[in-house]
Amino acid sequence: MSVLPADMPAEVVHRVGTDGAPLPADENVSMFRPRDVYGLLRPRSVEEVRDIVRSFAGAPKGPGLHVFSTGRNWGLGSREPARDGAVSLDLSQLASVREFDLQGGWAVVEPGVTQLQLASLLEGSDRMLNVTASSGHTSVLGNTVDRGVGLRHQRTRDLAGLEVVLPDGELIRVGWWPRESGPTAVNPSGLGPNPLGLFTQSDLGVVTAAVVRLLPRPEAQRTLRASIPRRHLSDALDELRRWKAQHLVSGVIKVYDTVSNRSYGGAAGDFVAHLCVDGTAETVEALTRVIEGEAARCGLFSDIVRSDDHPPADDDFVAQLVQRGFGGDPSHNEKVLLSAVGTTAEAVDGEGSGWVFFLPLVPFNGPALCRAQEILEQVGAETGISPGSTINALDADVVDLVVSFSFPRTDTAVSRAHAALDLTYELFEAAGFLPYRLDAEHHAWTDRLSQDAAARRFVRRLKHVIDPSGVIAAGRYA
Ligand SMILES: Cc1cc2nc3c(=O)[nH]c(=O)nc-3n(C[C@H](O)[C@H](O)[C@H](O)COP(=O)(O)OP(=O)(O)OC[C@H]3O[C@@H](n4cnc5c(N)ncnc54)[C@H](O)[C@@H]3O)c2cc1C
Questions:
Q1: Which residues line ligand 1 (CB under 6 A)?
Q2: How confident is the model at residue 156 (pLDDT cuts 50, 70, 90)?
Q3: What CATH class has 221-441?
Q4: What is the pLDDT of residue 262?
Q5: Three-class SS string for the chain?
């Protein structure tokens, strides 16, 4: 007896539990408890996705669908659903770039399209992709709908439109889509209430394609690397904020602390800030001079070097990744992944060393970021596991602080890492530094962190109207 609807097309069923039992548990690199998953479905087309959804909608209430694109959500639960009792819907085989337009600045991608795939299509063109620091084999769409962060900005800023299969099988396109009758300018908000945001961090539909914006490629680009002694950290971060606010630097300012530099395979030493300077060749020269002058004047940086004079050392994988990544090239990301978890993308969940993330937003100012560092030091002192942190300044006001815990997969180390993660949630919440993405273990924090109970009820009402029988399993943000 199978828990799948009776009319499920056999060709999409990749694995199913025998006699109604869950599948043997898969591992995840965070060593979170594997959930009970009753089957794994792998459609190859949008029509097959619709057939699956319609079968679930027409069947008696049972396990709901847990959707992922390439399932490389490492550090947050990988492919695991938030709750027990789901059937996984793996969309990695829908992997075509359906269309792209260099002049208009957009591409229509399916869930299985990877960063490497799209970035390599754009090589040598005057457009580029906002790539992340994760593996080149991760999904552009998957990361975007989870509101991930690239080297240029948060990925949702690149999101123009989504194609979604609703829980009754209807296919809709929200946001902006290319028109067959001729080019139109990209307008993600459309007219009237905008449903685009309803389908990110969402269990309201199955996303089968996205329109992502392609950024104009700068004519010239250089990365500056500035070292910050710990005693100057607060003032130096305020100075970097000023540079960001005055548009001296482009993209995300990344500041790696000593632990994160070590775990991602970067240079040893203090805090290292990576700054992207770009534009025409002349503006890059001018901005570099201005920044070097400001750095000399303030005296807060122990060293500042330019990527053209000082290319990243052969063993500085972080500097290599960041420099290429600012230019939309994810081809150096695998070395950082290897440093972080000790293996390649294919083997991370099965063989990689343990890894969890905590992802809060922190105001971009020296005192707030130093307070966050103090909390992380407290977590290290109380639990014996020292988190690494990377400051990702998204703009002049907001930092995405990537906190990572690396640990061996032994019982003691796993419990210590999970206890450290729990403590980090508690201490950061108390300080007002709230996460913007959650891992599968901490999904209940969505309610806890909600600023308005009525707004949560509104979202639940929507879910009930659109998906009364729970065709799509409650997700990490439900
Ligand atoms: C060393 C290292 C560096 C990393 N760097 C970064 C980084 O710079 N930025 C960053 O954001 N992350 C980073 N990550 C975390 C993670 O690897 C990426 O976010 C990755 O892109 C997520 O996996 P994925 O692309 O396969 O998405 P998936 O795992 O496929 O999707 C993520 C989630 O989105 C939802 N979802 C996905 N597809 C659909 C769909 N079609 N319909 C509905 N819902 C869907 C599901 O909830 C799913 O769990 C890093 C991880 C490591 C280990």
A1: 67-75, 91, 111, 132-134, 138-139, 141-143, 145-146, 148-149, 206-207, 336-337, 340-341, 355, 475-476
A2: very high
A3: alpha beta
A4: 86
A5: CCCCCCCCCHHHEEEECHHHCCCCCCCCCCCCCCCCEEEEECCCCHHHHHHHHHHHHHCCCCCEEEEECCCCCCCCCCCCCCCCCEEEEECCCCCCEEEEECCCCEEEECCCCEHHHHHHHHCCCCEECCCCCCCCCCEHHHHHHCCCECCCCEHHHHEEEEEEECCCCCEEEEECCCCCCCCCCCCCCCCCCCHHHHHCCCCCCEEEEEEEECEECCCEEEEEEEEECHHHHHHHHHHHHHHHHCCCCEEEEEEECHHHHHHHCCCCCCEEEEEEEEECHHHHHHHHHHHHHHHHHHCCCCEEEECCCCCCCCCCHHHHHHHHHHCCCCCCHHHHHHHHHCCCHHHHHHHCCEEEEEEEEEECCHHHHHHHHHHHHHHHHHHCCCCEEEEEECCCCEEEEEEEEEECCCHHHHHHHHHHHHHHHHHHHHHCCCEEECCHHHCCHHHHHCCCHHHHHHHHHHHHHHCCCCCECCCCCC
